[in-house]
Write a structure and sequence with these properties.
The radius of gyration is 24 Å and the shape is flat. By secondary structure, the protein is mainly α. The protein is 65% helix and 0% strand.
Length: 220
């Protein structure tokens, strides 16, 4: 039977197939650029120059899409094969925090998704397993291991989200000049510590992490 030329031409003119990887990476780009609120199946389909039906063939709903975005985000965390196995737990936690921070800072918009959910995808489970196994192996009771992992992960996420917020990139020299002009009679304590202000984001992050590790060491 002869094929209908019109139907064959129509198929050739159809939209190209979209891979899951391309859909997810484009969704991450959209969220990073415009925020989580801007993500919808329609907005994503428009950005991909496709239709929502194509997206629904891969993802049953937006919740499934968000889970895939989180998995992709966590997949960028490079913990290294020996990050936990060959280091003391203190250095293992620092490695986890540092590499988590590096990955999430590449996608501050998408990172906000982690504030509302406890990720349970395969990548999230592997990362959590390695962290918890390291702590348990170093003598942490299960309850303390769970709290330590969760607290450090939340600390990193909070630092990333806060750093990406509006108005937080103010020039440090401008801030220092403002502090120098403070009335010493009204704010003597602030004037006393003014030479140490403002504290850099990197120093603040490292100091907070050191405090958590010191507290955990004391609990052990």
């Amino acid at each position: 039977m002869t094929n209908d030329p019109a139907k064959t031409a129509g198929k050739r003119r159809g939209r190209p197939a979209l891979s899951v990887e391309r859909i997810v990476s484009t969704a991450v780009e959209l969220v990073d650029a415009e925020g989580v609120e801007a993500l919808s199946m329609r907005a994503l389909a428009d950005k991909l120059e496709s239709g929502t039906a194509t997206l629904y063939r891969h993802f049953g709903n937006k919740v499934d899409l968000l889970a895939a975005i989180i998995e992709a985000l966590l997949g960028e965390i490079d913990l290294g094969e020996d990050a936990f196995e060959s280091q003391p737990w203190e250095e293992g936690l620092r490695a986890m925090a540092s590499r988590m921070s590096t990955a999430l800072r590449r996608h501050p918009g998408a990172a906000r998704l982690l504030a509302d959910v406890m990720p349970t995808g395969p990548t999230a489970m592997r990362l959590r397993e390695r962290s918890l196994a390291m702590l348990l192996r170093n003598g942490f009771p299960p309850d303390l291991a769970a709290k330590a992992h969760a607290t450090v992960a939340r600390y990193v996420l909070g630092a990333v989200v806060l750093a990406a917020g509006p108005g937080l990139g103010a020039d440090q020299q401008t801030q220092a000049v403002h502090l120098e002009a403070i009335d010493a009679a009204r704010f003597p304590a602030t004037v006393q510590v003014a030479p140490a202000l403002p504290i850099s984001e990197a120093d603040e992050f490292a100091f907070g992490l050191d405090l958590m590790i010191a507290g955990l060491r004391a609990r052990l």
